[in-house]
Amino acid sequence: MVHMDDDSQVTSDHQIEEPTGNREQPMKETKRKPKSRAFLSSLTAGVIGSALTLGVVSYTDSFSDQEASNKDTSVSSNEMAADTASITPTQVSNEAGSIADIVEKASQAVVGIVNIQQQRNYFSNSSQNVETGTGSGIIFRKDEDRAYIVTNNHVIEGANEVEVSLHNGEKTAAKLVGADALTDLAVLEIDAENVTSVVDFGDSSALRPGDQVLAIGNPLGLDLSRTVTQGIVSAVDRAITVSTSAGDWEFNVIQTDAAINPGNSGGALINTKGEVIGINSLKISENGVEGLGFAIPSNDFIPIVNEIIENGKVVRPYIGVGLASLEEIPRMYIQDLPEDITAGAVVTNLDPNSAAKKAGIEVQDVIVSINGEEVQNSIALRKYLYTKLDVGDEVELGIYRDGELITVKLTLSSNQQGL
Length: 419
Fold this sequence. Notes:
Elements: E1 3-6, H1 34-41, E2 57-61, E3 87-88, H2 99-107, E4 110-121, E5 126-142, E6 146-151, H3 153-156, E7 161-165, E8 171-180, E9 185-191, E10 201-202, E11 212-217, E12 227-244, E13 247-256, E14 268-270, E15 276-284, E16 293-297, H4 298-311, E17 317-318, E18 321-325, E19 345-350, H5 355-358, E20 366-370, E21 373-374, H6 378-388, E22 394-401, E23 404-411, E24 413-414
Parallel strand pairs: 1-2, 3-10
Antiparallel strand pairs: 1-15, 2-15, 4-5, 4-7, 5-6, 6-9, 7-8, 8-9, 11-12, 11-14, 12-13, 13-16, 14-15, 15-16, 17-24, 18-19, 19-20, 20-21, 20-22, 22-23
């Protein structure tokens, strides 16, 4: 199963949990075919889908019940002020340099993150805050009194409180600026008083298989904080399908053989110039498998981070439906679908206030095309919607209903509740 590299109670063998924040689940359509609806409504909107190498890939999640004890360090000479995250153009270089010096400088901007959740004690009928997992994060910007940290969404998802452990041993409360479950990214804000260094982001598009990289993070909890592992870029532009709390999504990732373990999620993958070119997020977790870790490339996460800082969220077009891939639905539940239709996305529920509802889309409709392009599955529909369309665009959906192909037109709205 796809794990993101932290292995706490929050994300152990992690399929990402329900979204944090005040998300409302879309209401379910109840008009027809009770048996089919009963099955479909049991599927969570937008979350259904099998992960690539099911049972194999896992989040490199947070590790539970660990606390940090870190060394004091000197102040870094990094420039710290920037309006937005930006890429420093990178060229392949064979310059000799001290790996220790590079790591020492970069490590000062790598932090430990503790996910604290409220748990109820049913014996005493009371609630208390409990540390449920730890992960890693990267300080990438410092203003006069605030500093910003990028990490994985699954590291902080479900948290009532987030605590950050700095390189000098100081601990501070963090405020969630915003998060995006679909791309598994989150931005935190902390008081900048004890922040001594920030990272530079490098150009991940310059990476080639064989380039040397280093991973810095907190494997197995904060007792092993800022552990450094070394490896190479094994491959670029890998596609890994992951189930998130916002639905299945196909990640473009950097593959590396640098050791990544539970607790490394949100940590830095750096090049030999000390620039962060990836966020360690995924690993293959199976007996007999070694050296298969994955990082979100800097060129992919920087635009998301900037949008989160600007808007507190990522604004995407919204149809208002929950989906499952056709291949996941037993044929007995959609018997009226022609036998030659083997690809598509099945509507499992509807937001009653959405464009889909207003356009007459119904539960159990099978979406087979969007703007004339064939829809293979729910992931393909999301990919088209989020990469090729904008809020306010009119779309035309090809839908099979009761064995007949119909066309439905609607105008995309903006909503963070679902697809």
